[in-house]
Amino acid sequence: MKMKFYLFTFVLLIMITACQVTVQETVITTKSSDALLSKLEVSCGETKLDIDFFSTKYEYIYFLPNSEGKEVTLKYEPSNSNAKVFVNADKLTLKNNSSNYFNLTVISEDSKYMNTYKVNIFCYDSTTCVLKEFSVNEQTPDGFEPNYYSYTIDITGDSFIPRFAAVSDDAEIECTDSDGTVFKSGEAHNWGERTSLTLTVKVTLGTESASYTFTLNKIQIDVVSNIFYNFSDLSAQFATDGYTTVITGDSLSVGYGFFGSGFTDAWNTYSGILSWGHMIRDAVHRNDSGFMYADELLDNGKIEKSGNVKTTRWWSSGRTNPTDSYWMPFNNRNVYFYDISGTDEVSFPFNNSNAGTNKAVLYFARNPNDTACSFKIKLNGNDVNVKVNDSTCRSLEVERVDLTGHKAFEKDSSYLAKTYKGSNFYAGYELVAVEISNLEKGTNTITLHSFENTKNKDSCGFFFLGCGTKYSPVYLNGRSGATSDFFIDTAVANGAFNQRLCVPKDETNERIAPDCLIWIIGANDSVNGGGAGNNGTDDKGVGKGTVAVEKYKNNLDTVLSSLRKKNPKLQIILVSSPVWGTKASNDDPGYDTRRTLLMQYANTMEGIAVNYNAAFLNTIYLFDSLPVNENSETDAAVYWRTDSIHFSRFGHTVLAKNLLSKIMAIGIYPKEMIDSEKIYCEGTVY
């Protein structure tokens, strides 16, 4: 009996043991937000340069005498080993009287944060006539380097102390204002009644001279806190390949009024118009550590041309009229290649510094002129298919790139392509991004060849803007006259919601929400009885009239909830309408009444922003302290609007700068170019 009991107990223990489940603890490791370098070293031969590295100091300039032709090398380490570091080059061969750049972009392991380090090795000799430094109250202007000549510095306080020095100790320096008053380095000066001052610094060495312009602006320390709500820096996201952004809304998103006349859609304006939306588009594309302009490639001797291929800087003649000056993106900065035959080739080396994409992105402008062309592309000697992206929101894989203006849309029956065919400007010189994938590590050679003349003229040509390492699409989809009603047709395939707020998933007709939406809406809702609504029939907007505040709220809720269902991670940035009016506020008896009304819509939009964890910018507060204008031809650089509501060039600049200061505060786009007056030409090479 005991034997049976023991046997039963033994079997039971085995069964219990067999049934036990070993619970293994799962440890979830949080991804780091560290986007810093712990080490940054630059060496020239065996000599390590003293660049005074700090992990939170992002710009360095080192002056290296008599070193032309020598090689400088770069070493670096991220603070977090899982962070990604992208560099434009590991070594450089120094060129004299020139800035030799290292750009390093660190993106955190969780992809939420990004920092970019910029090292400028300026090589010079005894004949170099440039400034070595300039500061006011110990503050150096953003992006200062010897070969750029115009800067703006915002400073506080009732007095200021400029300091400046030249590279050569033998150079003479003279600093004066517009009245001829001389300013000496290290001496304090009072503002007096002034709030702005332009200093000209002239450096002279022998027969050579160089002049720099520094605009000083006195700013108030106190900042209006109710302009912005819930903004966060998206620099890392905008540096990510494939990150999509939609900028849309009413005519305030279109660029209407930029030339004192209107446009119906954002996509039928001039493709290079410097409206706030277009400037944000360019900033996103240039937020790329590997980006180089076409003229930089040309000037550095990287571009090789065969046969009789000629080049010219399309901006070099100093074009000033609107239709010429605002043709193309990137402030009209480009190189025009022409007199090309079918046997010619154009090639340049491209350093693959972005391991996250392994691609090169070439930026062109379409060409409706008599010299338009198509071509094939070789990567390291082999023909490759490439992906072509343009403003019709298409992304097509092709073996031949065709940059002809209207011809590109002949076989395209999509809704937007039909719209483009009838537009006057965007179907001409709009941005075309050509993606080349599967690059090798290190230096690759990109060759354009097998050119075909698509206009049947004596010669063919193309406009080259620059190249980078990623493509982050930005869709400009605004529509003049739109109310919030215009966008609520969420179930209509070709309606405004799908065509204006969503982006194509692939070559199919499926539409998805973008990664980021910037939406300005409310002006027509509040006071425009002719504002375009949408009853779900088409994109033209059949319903018209003002939209009551409660309906406005419901419309915003309908649109944003539908978008969030498509993309729960959608970043939303809402922008309210400024105040309508035909005169300056002190001359317009109805101004205060309209301001009260517009504030109701703005407050409603802010409430929606709170509910959707969205960002919100109140333009009423933003423009409160700036003078308005009812005549677009008078003092355009002072007043923020051209008519009763639409932004002047100055107004576009104000809005673009303020938005970018929040959404891309640490971005690496050229901040001095966010200015609607700064067209790239001989007289204004920024």
Describe the structure.
By secondary structure, the chain is of the alpha+beta class. It is built from 15 helices and 38 strands. Strands 19, 21, 22, 24, 27, 28, 30 and 32 form an eight-stranded antiparallel β-sheet that branches. It starts with a helix and ends in a 23-residue tail after the last helix. 42% of the residues are buried. Residues 1-19, 419-424, 535-542 and 630-637 have low confidence and may be disordered.
Structural class: alpha+beta
Q: What gap, in angstroms, lies between the N and C termini? A: 101 Å
Query: Mind telling me the C-alpha Rg?
Result: 28 Å
Based on Cα principal axes, name the global outline: globular
How large is the share of residues in beta strands?
Answer: 25-35%
Number of helices: 15
Record field, number of beta strands: 38
Specify the biggest β-sheet.
8 strands, antiparallel
Seen as an oligomer or otherwise, the chain set is single chain
Low-confidence stretches: 1-19, 419-424, 535-542, 630-637
Percent helix, as a range, is: 10-25%
* Overall pLDDT confidence: 82
